[in-house]
Amino acid sequence: MDDQATSLRKLVQGKSEYAAPAPAPNAGGEMAGGRTIPAGNASVVAQPYTAPPIRPLPTFRAPPPPSIPAFQPAFQKEGDARIIAVTSGKGGVGKTNLTVNLAIALGQEGKNVIVIDADLGMANVDVVLGSVSKFHLMHLLKDDISLNDVLIHGPYGVNYISGGSAMERAVEFTPLERRRLMDKLSACGEMADIILIDTGAGIGRNVMDFILAADEVVLVTTPEPTALTDAYAVMKAYSNYASNKNMRLVINRVYDESESADVITKLQRTADRFLKMPLESLGSIYEDRNVMNAVKRQAPLMIAYPDTLAARCVQSIAKTMVYGGQHEVRWGWRGFLQRLLKFK
């Protein structure tokens, strides 16, 4: 047994009896790991350790964002304008105001729009626009009055025709008067992409003639119980007589999203249960005092207050009308006139 001093010397020289046994050499004196043991009592010399090459991490490439399908314009046959009647069950729900501002919003979407003010006896399109119309549809019965005389190129790019009382006595027109109106008005279908018919309120014969002759109908109402009751009356009359049911809904003057959703759901369920008629929603317009401020200024909301909440709602409705689905023109402008003027 070596004393402590001898053990320390051996330890320094690498010969400690307490050292762990060295691994057995491979053939040729090479040890595992690539180190060799020289002969004799020479010091053990290890080869320098070479670290294996580090493989570069793969380059991270973020997956491409999901493709968002672009809106596709509503299908429309070349040369045929979409005829959209804007109506309501009762007055005072903002129908004419919506019609004028929709015309501006649709124009901002690149559409050529003509508004026909057919709210007989309560024509207010020119009031909303702050303009005055010298002629109306009745003047087209005169030989020396042309469509260019009646079609008003109003402010803000809105072209409109005042209905006056011409259509009120359409059933009394002679065949010659009907043909004259037909010939003079037919060019509107080539001048416009969309023709908005601002009808009167209710379910009178004049109102029903317009909405039954149109390809599409927009029903405007508010959440008030009386307005909803009258709106249902229009829905019922339309479902009874329309050969091609295509009515959509706009809820005006709502205070929040839940109120809008509640009204839409009630009317849609009623239409489905009792009328067996689909009723899509174009959207809602929030209560906004700037609407009344614009009326007082005799300027459309889309021009006077374009960044307000109500104006953005109108823009959204216009986009839905242009890009929201496929809307085939069934009758077109000429068909509308034929049905309205009672051509066989």
Largest sheet: spatial strand order: 3-4-2-5-1-6-7-8
CATH class: Alpha Beta
Instruction: State Rg.
Output: 40 Å
Q: Which percent range describes the beta-strand content?
A: 5-15%
| Overall mean confidence score, pLDDT | 81
Number of strands: 8
Per CATH, the architecture is: 3-Layer(aba) Sandwich
Number of domains: 1
User: How would you sum up the major sheet?
Assistant: 8 strands, mixed
Summing up helix and strand content along with how strands pair, one would put the structural category as alpha/beta
What is the number of helical segments per DSSP (H or I, 4+ residues)?
13
Structural description of this entry:
It is a single chain. This protein is α/β, with parallel strands linked by helices and 344 residues long. The protein has one domain: P-loop containing nucleotide triphosphate hydrolases (Rossmann fold, 3-Layer(aba) Sandwich), CATH 3.40.50. 38% of the residues lie in helices and 14% in strands. The protein contains 13 helices and eight strands. The chain has an eight-stranded mixed sheet, sandwiched between helices. Helix 8 links the parallel strand 6 and strand 7.
Features:
alpha/beta, single chain, Rossmann fold, 38% helix, 344 residues, eight-stranded mixed β-sheet
Structure summarized in a few sentences:
This protein has 344 residues and is of the alpha/beta class. It has helices spanning 4-12, 95-108, 125-129, 147-150, 175-185, 188-191, 205-213, 225-241, 257-275, 289-297, 301-304, 309-323, 332-340; strands at 82-88, 113-118, 152-153, 159-162, 194-201, 216-221, 247-254, 280-286.
